Amino acid sequence: MSEKYVVTWDMFQMHTRKLSERLLPATQWKGLIAVSRGGLFPAAVIARELGIRHVETVCISSYDHNQQGELNVLHAAQVENGGEGFIVVDDLVDTGNTARAIRELYPNARFVTVFAKPAGAALVDDYVLLIFHKIRGLNSLGIWELLSFHHWQENNYYKIKPALMLALFIYVLIF
């Protein structure tokens, strides 16, 4: 059984803020492109920290019932010059399959993740933490399990239902 790296919301937010500091000065950026779903929360934190209001999304499906499969671009943000002046944000680069697709869509964007696994680390421009273990608390490139109002006794995690998460995301961008 492989060892797991446990991620709490506080750790996730701390690492994302550290990533935000590396993206200063904020005036160099036109906006963010959040990779849904995992990149939505780090993008919200980065947008808040840098005062960026222009946030787009790219939706790429590569997981079906927790098994990685064929990549499917469901929605791609339409930005000029291959994403020049934009930051693409995701929570984790794992095998690199999604990262390669992102690079094809936005070759001139700055691509950052909070976490990276060795197989995909070279495909992003910056990340905060290199992880060699399975990540517990992040599910299939997302932090949805991590965020809930229902307390997980075993892990001290909190979850937010997806509709509430969207409301929180919008709140962070507006205020």
Plain-language structure description:
The protein has helices spanning 9-22, 40-50, 97-105, 162-174; strands at residues 4-6, 31-36, 55-64, 67-75, 86-93, 110-116, 126-130, 134-136, 148-152, 157-159. It has 175 residues and is of the alpha/beta class. The chain has one domain (8-129, 161-174): Rossmann fold. The strands form 3 sheets. It has a 6-stranded mixed β-sheet with strand order 4-3-2-5-6-7, sandwiched between helices. Helix 1 crosses helix 2 and helix 2 (40-50) runs parallel beside helix 4. The radius of gyration is 15 Å and the shape is globular. The chain starts with a strand and ends with a helix.
Order of helices and strands: EHEHEEEHEEEEEH
Low-confidence stretches: 136-161
Rg from alpha-carbon coordinates: 15 Å
Q: Tell me the overall shape.
A: globular
Structural class: alpha/beta
- Report the end-to-end length measured between terminal Cα atoms: 44 Å
Kindly give the count of domains: 1
CATH architecture: 3-Layer(aba) Sandwich
The number of helical elements comes to: 4
- What is the tally of beta strands? 10
Strand content: 25-35%
Strand order of the biggest β-sheet = 4-3-2-5-6-7
CATH class: Alpha Beta
**How many strands, what sense, and barrel or not for the largest sheet?**
6 strands, mixed
Portion of residues within helices: 25-40%
Question: In summary, what is this structure?
Answer:
The chain has 175 residues and is an alpha/beta fold.
What topology does this entry show?
Layout: E1 4-6, H1 9-22, E2 31-36, H2 40-50, E3 55-64, E4 67-75, E5 86-93, H3 97-105, E6 110-116, E7 126-130, E8 134-136, E9 148-152, E10 157-159, H4 162-174
Parallel strand pairs: 1-8, 2-3, 2-5, 5-6, 6-7
Antiparallel strand pairs: 3-4, 9-10
Helix pairs in contact: 1-2, 2-4
